[in-house]
Amino acid sequence: MNDLARYERRRRIMYGWMLLSPALILLSLFAFIPSAMTFWSSLFSRGTRRNPSEFVGAGNYELLFADPTFSKVVVNNLIYAGVTIPVSIIIALAMALWANSKIPARGFVRTAFFTPTILPMIAAANIWLFFYTPGLGVLDQIGALFGFGSVNWLGRPETALWAVIIVTIWKEAGFFMIFYLAALQTIPPDLKEAADIEGASRWTYTRRIVLPLLMPTTIFVAVNALINSVKLIDHLFILTKGGPSDASKLVLYYIWELAFSYFDRPQAAALTVMVLLVLGITAAIKFIILDRRTHYQ
Amino acid sequence: MTDPFVHVESVEKRWNGQLGVEDISLSIPRGSFVALLGPSGCGKSTTLRLLAGLEVPDSGRIVIGGRDVTASPAAERGLSMVFQSYALFPHLDVAENVLFGLKVRRVPRAEQRKKLAEALDMTGLTGLEKRKPGQISGGQRQRVALARAIVAGHPLCLMDEPLSNLDAKLRHSVRRDIKKLQRDLGMTVIYVTHDQTEAMSMADMVVLMKEGRIEQAGKPAELYETPASTFVAGFVGSPPMAFMDAAILPAGLTSAGLDAVYGVRPEHLDLTQEGEGLLQAVITHCEYMGSETFISFDVPGTSGLTVRLPGEVRRSVGEAAGLTFDLSNLHAFDKNTGYKLSR
What are the residue boundaries of the ABC transporter domain, all occurrences included (chain B) (predicted)? Predict the structure, then answer.
């Protein structure tokens, strides 16, 4: 009997590991091990033929903090995230509320809002490249109608980052709208009726009932937007290549440059580790703090 | 019934030409309990939603408390509503759910607290203030919906099948609670149900609807004792009235002629020996209910023929028996229209 119980116990443990193994193997191969290796390589100096690579500890990190481009891209990315995340969420929510109400051509409106999401980022960037082109571009042509001069949106340090931000918002808002739309459709219509009978205005209903019920979606979307603000840099390759003079350079683009243009892999590794750290901490804070205040059905 | 509290005048509502309700006229005195009864799709919920202001009638007039509210939004009609699904706000706790309307109307906080305590006490929810709807039982959720409906003290409360999500035992006790609340608070309640027992046992007035029209409105006893049509007779009562074609009854018994259908309640039928009585029948079903036994028969030209006998009666299925009844207990209906024939 005791043997049988022990056998049963062992069987269950084996079973658990078997269920765990596919995810464990894949995540280890493509996430955990590379992260650890990145961290390890960030501790060594860049090897050249004359100076072989040697252990420098935090040396690469010190170099990074001394690098003016590093602070520039961090500030850029903070602005980029600080604008794209809230603005795309607010626009997504507004579009979802609108596309969920009883309006004519609702299907068309939803499709129209979602179209930017279907486009590959590279294609979207090419479209916007045409919009932004000085002289020929749509923006300049519209501006010319009102008597404004030609503006090189992507070519001026003051506007380049903002031009990139607008493309990102345009691309993301439609995608996030789909999540909000799905969440809105799970809210039973009789909640609205109950609120109506109690005399709640549209605004009160939205603020007191709809927004709290959408909180799980908002958290999900916000985490996604945060990840995208670091991860999504395809459009930079088409639009600005980080320029002019690093005005629109984001962290991941800089990592790519360090690794594959300057071939400074230890520096790139150090920067990657810092990005992972910041993202991890932010996600943890979001989930821990916001989850506690959120109602899940 | 001078100066009715709720007055509905030939209200009609259609959706894309499809009939919702038609020619609905009702006068409901203050403080009464009215049941809108009928099978699904008969328009009883639509009628309630029209009263609530969740739908706007295509024509007709709705007056509540002497004020024409036909075009008023729901909030201005001075009523509360209990939804079939309860429509509780899942992210708010019990207290916030109950107080939602008072908060919207910016009632002073001290008054909110007082009314909350009263409403929770009356519905037996005291102590559950901080629970979310997901953390309480179905019966408690139902009482939260009730508490939310009574907390504002509106004189009119609409209930849309409030008991349909409860199990049978709970339903019975909640039925009494609702009735007691209504009486204690002097509320006028308009109550939608498809369950005739609920309607008959709770209501002062039952409005039986069919296909978007009112079939008969009156006291429960009126509907039971003098049904206006075969539909009413077949809907009210458990088991409902049985019907017999005039042709199968002994000639000379029936004054209304062969175009009539005769209805008889189970308690007015009596069992006799085979070969005696007015009808010869075969037992198809025997239901023992404890204090009484229902025996059903199959006779060509009849439907739902059932006898109610007190206590336990042992008869086997397939046995032949005679049936007898007093002619004065027969209800005559027109065979084609189903409406009552005057004697």
Answer: 6-236
Segments making up each domain of chain B, as ranges: 6-232, 239-334
Nearest CA distance, A25 vs chain B (angstrom)? 38
In chain A, which residues touch B (CB < 8 A)? Answer: 188, 190-191, 193-201, 204, 208-209, 212-213, 215, 295, 297
Going through A62-122 in order, the beta strands assigned E by DSSP cover none
ipTM of the complex: 0.82
Class of domain B6-232: alpha beta
Looking at beta carbons, which pairs linking B174-177 to residues 24 or more positions away fall under 8 Å?
A: B174/B139, B174/B142, B174/B143, B175/B201, B175/B202, B177/B123, B177/B124, B177/B143, B177/B146
The percentage of residues in chain A with a pLDDT greater than 90, rounded to a whole number, is 32
Q: Which long-range contacts (CB under 8 A, 24 or more apart) does A34-42 make?
A: A35/A273, A35/A276, A38/A269, A38/A272, A38/A273, A38/A276, A39/A269, A39/A273, A41/A265, A41/A266, A41/A269, A42/A266, A42/A269, A42/A270, A42/A272, A42/A273
Residue in chain B lying closest to A194 (CA): B87
Low-confidence ranges of chain B (pLDDT < 50): 1
Phi, psi of A40 (to 5 degrees): -60, -45
* Residue of A197, A201, A209 with shortest CB distance to B74: A197
What letter does residue B214 receive in the DSSP assignment? E
The torsion angles phi and psi of B155, rounded to 5 degrees, stand at -75, -15
The candidate with the shortest Cα–Cα distance to B207, out of B29, B77, B25, B2, is: B25
Check CB contact under 8 Å for A297 and B134.
yes
Mutation pick from B55, B76, B91 vs chain A, by most beta carbons of A within 10 Å, is: B91
Q: What does the pLDDT read at residue A29?
A: 94
Is there a contact between B74 and A196 if contact means CB atoms under 8 Å apart?
Answer: yes
- Inter-chain contact B75–A196, Cβ cutoff 8 Å? yes
Are the Cβ atoms of B90 and A213 closer than 8 angstroms?
Answer: yes
CB contact (8 A) between residue A295 and residue B85: no
Q: What share of chain B is helix, strand, coil (3-state, %, to 5)?
A: 30, 30, 40
Which chain A residues touch B100 with a CB distance below 8 Å? Answer: 195, 198, 200, 208
- Contact status of B294 with chain A (Cβ, < 8 Å): no
Which of B137, B146, B133 has the alpha carbon at shortest distance from B96?
B133
The pTM score is 0.79
DSSP string, A146-210: TTPPP--TTTSHHHHHHHHHHHHHHHHHHHHHHHHHHHHHTS-HHHHHHHHHTT--HHHHIIIII
Work out the minimum CA distance from B74 to partner chain A, whole angstroms: 5
The CATH class, in words, for A58-292 is: mainly alpha
* Burial of A154: CB neighbours in 10 Å, binned 0-12, 13-18, 19+: buried
CATH 2.40.50.140 fits B239-334, yes or no: yes
Encoded tokens for B101: 């309307």
Enumerate the residues of chain B whose CB falls inside 8 A of the CB of residue A295: 90-91, 132
Q: Where are the domains of chain A?
A: 1-41, 58-292
Which residue carries 């959120």 as its tokens?
Answer: A294
Collect all residues of chain A within an 8 Å Cβ-Cβ radius of residue B83: 190, 193-194
Closest by alpha carbon to A164, among A131, A195, A137? A131
For residues A121 and A172, what is the distance between their CA atoms, to the nearest angstrom?
Answer: 10
The token pair at A80 is: 């980029």
Q: Which tens digits make up the pLDDT trace of B249-307?
A: 776 666 666 778 889 999 998 888 887 888 888 899 888 988 999 999 888 888 888 99
